[in-house]
Automatic annotation (TrEMBL):
This is F-box domain-containing protein.
């Protein structure tokens, strides 16, 4: 059965599967542009199926051709809800505010294209190296109706602002605008603000969320403790929370900080939170932050050491012991009672961590329900802590272990030790960059350890033909017909 015999409805669905990934990309749009140039019938199906054009990516560099193509996409997709991705990041990581090729003028031009369709925005993502495009977005959306907006993802892709001594720049743009003019957005459920600050006092647009991610903020634009509590308390049904680096601003005066913290300990109640991801810059700050929460039903936890984004940090060994001691209820001080329960934890991911075997092992001893663990670029003590001892079996319910950037010989030792004591089999996946030695590969096979190459980086994208006028496409199709004499018309 040839694809040309498919009914138009089936053909359109095939096009949909190829052109609508999780988020709009240049590659997915190239696919849609290509299929609309194959034959007259395919073009007619593509253009008449307006929902195919409802995912739009606008990407660096910004020029007239890119904006013209975006306008065509928007016109073809009416009246369907829109998913927008605006990626203004320079592939060369240009963080220069003054010299970057995408600044206020270019951002204003983009907003001029997409704002008339704001009533159709369902999801919108904007990524930028510099502040101008994000500030323009916040500025031009102050008085825009957004009746169906469900998800917003705004990222200033410069995590180095999370360094303890960094301040927001450029200083002239250190303005706190209310998100979407502080209007009520009934359908908004999911917000990501990375390196993007807003007016933390006026939070109407941030109420009723189920997913919230904030991170990589400079310390001088953080919310106060009161504002932070207001932000989270306004979303009592929150299910997923990501905090990378900093949460609320705490006083540098130890006495003032401790007095204030005492007022807020365990006061931020998140009874429905299932997923929590924490990027730690300073462990002592992370403990203060954790002490603010009451989380009784956590199921998935991710811990990441993000000091790699602070060039001034002097790395100290086992700096994460205090984090695991806190979760184990062994913080060593009554001022930090553990208020985050890990008894229901089924998934744990730890990245770039250096901790002592004793602390991590004590933590794992209490994870009786843990089924999935992912370990990426951590110290050897993390894997060693999973070895069964004469007393206790860390993570006895563990059924899947994924490991990347570790000593394969150590992994073999741990898996052997657990297999000797385990009742049920455990799936083990080892991700690696170089080709592993044949001896290691043989032992992996004997222990049923799956060896996979590390996930590769995205290939550099290339710009594709943006001229999609009917005259040009007709000429292309006529040429193909003359050359091939094909029957796909």
């Amino acid at each position: 059965m040839s694809i040309n015999s498919f009914p138009n409805e089936i053909l359109a669905h095939v096009f949909l599967l190829g052109s609508h990934p999780m988020a709009p990309t240049i590659q997915s749009q190239e696919f849609l542009m290509t299929i609309s140039h194959v034959s007259s019938r395919w073009r007619q199906v593509a253009l008449s199926s307006r929902y195919l054009w409802s995912s739009l990516a606008i990407s660096f560099p910004i020029d007239a051709g890119e904006l013209d193509r975006a306008q065509v996409w928007l016109q073809r997709s009416r009246p369907y809800p829109l998913r927008l991705t605006i990626d203004l990041c320079d592939p060369d990581w240009d963080f220069d505010e003054e010299a970057h090729s995408v600044r206020w003028f270019e951002a204003q031009a983009i907003m001029g294209v997409i704002l008339p369709e704001a009533w159709r925005w369902q999801e919108i993502q904007m990524f930028a190296d510099n502040w101008d495009p994000l500030y323009a977005f916040l500025h031009f959306t102050q008085k825009v109706a957004l009746p169906i907006l469900h998800r917003v993802d705004l990222r200033r892709c410069n995590p180095y602002f999370a360094g303890p001594d960094r301040k927001f720049a450029p200083l002239k743009s250190r303005v706190f605008l209310p998100l979407f003019g502080n209007q009520v957005l009934e359908n908004l459920q999911d917000i990501v603000l990375e390196g993007v600050h807003v007016d933390w006092e006026n939070l109407t647009a941030l109420r009723g969320l189920t997913r919230l991610s904030i991170g990589y903020l400079a310390r001088d634009v953080l919310p106060t403790l009161d504002e932070f509590q207001g932000l989270l308390s306004s979303s009592p049904l929150l299910e997923s929370l990501v905090i990378m680096g900093w949460g609320p601003r705490l006083s540098k005066d130890p006495n003032v900080k401790e007095t204030k913290l005492q007022q807020f300990r365990s006061k931020i109640r998140l009874p429905h939170l299932k997923v929590f991801e924490l990027g730690v810059m300073i462990p002592s700050y992370a403990i203060d932050l954790l002490s603010l929460f009451y989380i009784p039903a956590l199921e998935a936890l991710t811990l990441d050491d993000i000091t790699r984004y602070d060039t001034q940090t002097v790395v100290s060994p086992r700096r994460f012991d205090v984090i695991f001691d806190y979760f184990s209820g062994q913080a060593g001080t009554s001022s930090h009672p553990t208020s985050i329960s890990t008894r229901l934890l089924t998934s744990l991911m730890i990245t770039n961590l250096d901790c002592g075997q004793t602390s991590f092992r004590r933590f794992c001893q209490g994870l009786h329900q843990l089924r999935i663990m992912t370990v990426v670029n951590c110290s050897a003590s993390v894997l060693e802590a999973l070895t069964p001892g004469t007393i206790g079996f860390p993570c006895e319910s563990l059924r899947r272990l994924s490991v990347e950037a570790c000593d394969p010989n150590l992994l073999i030792q741990v898996v052997k030790a657990r297999q000797m004591r385990d009742i049920e089999p455990m799936d083990v996946v080892f991700q690696h960059d170089p080709v592993i030695p044949s001896e290691i590969a043989w032992q992996f096979e004997q222990l049923n350890i799956k060896s996979l190459p590390s996930q590769g980086r995205d290939l550099p994208w290339r710009r594709f033909m943006t001229d999609d006028s009917d005259d040009l496409v007709d000429a292309i199709l006529d040429e193909r017909w003359d050359v091939a004499g094909a029957s796909i018309q």
